[in-house]
Amino acid sequence: KAGVTQTPRYLIKTRGQQVTLSCSPISGHRSVSWYQQTPGQGLQFLFEYFSETQRNKGNFPGRFSGRQFSNSRSEMNVSTLELGDSALYLCASSLESNGGWEFFGPGTRLTVL
Amino acid sequence: GESVGLHLPTLSVQEGDNSIINCAYSNSASDYFIWYKQESGKGPQFIIDIRSNMDKRQGQRVTVLLNKTVKHLSLQIAATQPGDSAVYFCAETPISGGYNKLIFGAGTRLAVHP
Question: Which residue in chain A has the smallest CA separation from B99?
Answer without folding.
Answer: A98
